[in-house]
Amino acid sequence: MDVASHDASPVLIVGAGPTGLAAAISLARAHIPVRLIDKATQPNPYSRAIGIQARTLELLEQHRLVEPFLELGHRARAANLFSNGMRLAQLDFDPLQTRYPYLLFLDQSVTERLLTGHLASLGVTIERGVELTMLAQGATSVHATLRRADGQTESMRPSYVIAADGAHSTVRHRLELGFVGKTFEQTFLLADLQAQTDWPDDEFHIFASGEGLVALFPMGHGRHRLIADHPVEAGGAASANGGTPQGFSAPPPSPLLAQCKALLARRVRERIDVSDMTWSSYFHLSSRMVEKLRTGRVFLAGDAAHVHSPAGAQGMNTGMQEAFNLGWKLARVLKGAAPDRLLDTYHQERHPIERDVLRQTGFITQMAQADHGPLKLLRERVMPVLAGFGPLRDAARLTVSELAVQYRRSPLTLERVLDGGPRAGERAPDALVHVVDGPLGCAPGVGCIFDLHDPAFFSLFLLVPPLPVDDQPLDPAARHAVPEDAELSRLVEGIERILPGAVRVWRITDTRGEGGPPLSEAYGRTRPSFYLVRPDGYVGARGRTSSDLHGLLRHCETWFAVSGDAPEAVAL
Prior knowledge:
This protein is α+β, with helices and mostly antiparallel strands. Helix content is 30%, strand content 27%. It contains 15 helices and 27 strands. Strand 6 and strand 7 form a beta hairpin. The longest helix is centred in the middle third of the chain and has 29 residues.
């Protein structure tokens, strides 16, 4: 048996699903060498995760690859919850302050194909039919053995390992890491089929009844994804139509179209005609997560780190956002430009979010399935009242869309009070701006924050008072508030010295026009001020350019430069 050696420098990513692909894209964009392996010889052709949330679409936009997703996906602008034939609540996404006020439905197989194509444009190809057979790590290194489909093995010492290899993660098992949680009693059914209904094609519907739960999600052109809970069937074998969906244990035999028709007839009082089923399977519902996302030089992400109910279409989105969170931090450390403690913030920032997702999806599933007791009362009596309360609807929209994800308690945030705008740790929203000047010889003009931000860099936005209009001079008070150009230039030079080659500085101001919300609406009215946006699109620091820029320099020295002399991060 031949054994080959490989250079130790690449990051090894195990698993080429959406999470592994997103991690590889994030690293490759920052020019970090990557090896992405998957033991499957071919991509899985069946759709498992299908919902892409608004926040994930925003991140794909910043990576310059959202357009094909929008072209191929199907947009759903509202969710409807029914119980025993009565509509209890409708949640519409139109009020969301984003370019993507909807849930985009797209086969996971297509998502993976689009991500794979973009990754190839960055010079990285998936190594298929390659399985991780051994993983061991010491205090300062990690050793892996890979086996190809032809039996040839290879020994390598990657710089770091990202486990994105699903709920039955080989990496997690090799490191003997616990997967804490529980397996629910219910078995769920999945089916992709044609459905003729009387409701709009841009809405999805969830039905709860004494018979159980059923949901229909439109995929475009009459095609729908059916999800329903189903009594456990004993003695079944694995699905003949594609096997077990990643992240779930072995199911009974695949359901037939006749079974789906009978289930819908019992549980849904609306007219639904279904036909042409292309794929179906069962899965057992689990809710589990690891206690630590980092173990030495190994990081866990996606289903390898957590599995939970499909309620809310959170799983794939959570995994991809974990990958984008981790990617820039690894890149910074691997370039020798940041201390190792920066990597600890991956767990500190993402683990609380994973915990909340497990709690929320578990509660939603149990409430929707309840046929008696307090949860049924909550669903049928209390929910309609709460659904009519505007602030609660707004909170639900932000939570489902994942626009509410934030790291305000992270040690990576520097927060100073401004008049409006996102706080440090929150998502940096898009806005229409006038660019006064920028990097790379950028000419003045109108642009958007998302167009200016490059996820391979930090972006420092200096918000200055509006330019004179019709040859009228600036208000004297506003002019006085702008720091002297020489002082501001010295501070910008300081940022570029601390983050050499890693930050792009933009001086922007307010403008009018189409293409995004006004700068003052999205980022507040304090002028002059600054926002430091992390590579993953979250505000790392904000403050007034007249008083807080020296604090920004110290913050960057502490966390993003090897010369930082700071205390260790505290747990969230």
